[in-house]
Here is the input.
Amino acid sequence: MKQLSERIRGVSASRTVRLSGVIDSLRRQGHDIINLGVGEPYEAPFPDILSKTTAALKGGETRYGPVAGIPELRNAISEKFDGYTGENILVTNGSKQALYTALQVLCDPGSQVIIPRPCWVSFCEQIKLAGATPVLVDTKAHQLDCHAIEKAINADTRAIIINSPNNPTGAVYPKEDLRAIADLAWAHDLYLISDEAYEAFVYDGWTHRSLFDFPHIRDRLIVAGSFSKTYCMTGFRIGYAAAPKEIITAMARLQSHLTGNVCTFAQHGALAAARRDPSHFHGWRNHLQKKRDMTLEMLKDLPCDTPRGAFYVFPDVIHCLKKNESAEDLASEILQRVNVAVAPGEAFGGDGHIRICYAIEEKRLIQGLERLVQVIHQRTGATAP
Here is the structure.
């Protein structure tokens, strides 16, 4: 029998998406699964987003639309980027497609793309699908090691991917480190891809900094953004890329052959979201910070750097593992024994860790953490509080 392509044989399925399938199957079997493994806010979209979406659906916004997105939405998104217009924006099927399309447009076979590790599960696989090679550079306490990144640059390096706030660690990179990365890209004539899906989720008085803050590298910068997390619109699949017109035009040309336009009536919901007063988010951010602090307190026996952003904690579980056991083995045991799903760190290049999402309903979060702590204490011999 003929084999499938070498390209697809070299790519692994998303382990976080696979986890969702396992959870759904267990729930259909009657298990009370508490899902701390998938990064999705439990809240529903705001009523005005739903009403604008349904109004567009009822109003006949169900046909093909412009490949790059409806002009009103592109213009609204562009207002976040000084000097940009709608022509600098491509509306995509989630930020995942924005990142995939950017890599397809930028990379040639043999290219290398640098990624700080731990990193989001799809970065490496998307780079491979572009015929390029991911080059993973370890972080220090989940912060950028700019010196190590510079050492990893060679003649084949095409781009650096930066993700702040970070998935899976929740790290927020300070302005001085982002400036150093921007200067490296400028000095070595590299592209920069900035994944800012969690830009709204920053705590403890910290401020989200974007690579777009540095004008001298805007000619080589692609910013990927999303409506999924900030507006609880994960199922809408609305993301975007912001970049120089030449790059956006190339990405739109590719998208015209992949998906065509993004769901038309869903874009009207995104337009309502883009026009919302940002102050709506302050209360939710404070509530998430409270849940982060509660999560860290309940997991105080696990070493964990305090995350300043996103809605994940990424504790070290090495001392809980048996000989030759992985964090994935531990995650499997936790799911089987106490019906709690966590994401194994190996999925993110963070061996010996687990990722926990605290953006779920508070009562369920507490229940899930209590069950998780039971397993941890049994494994370590600690006494439960």
Notes: The chain has two domains: 6-44+280-380, 63-276.
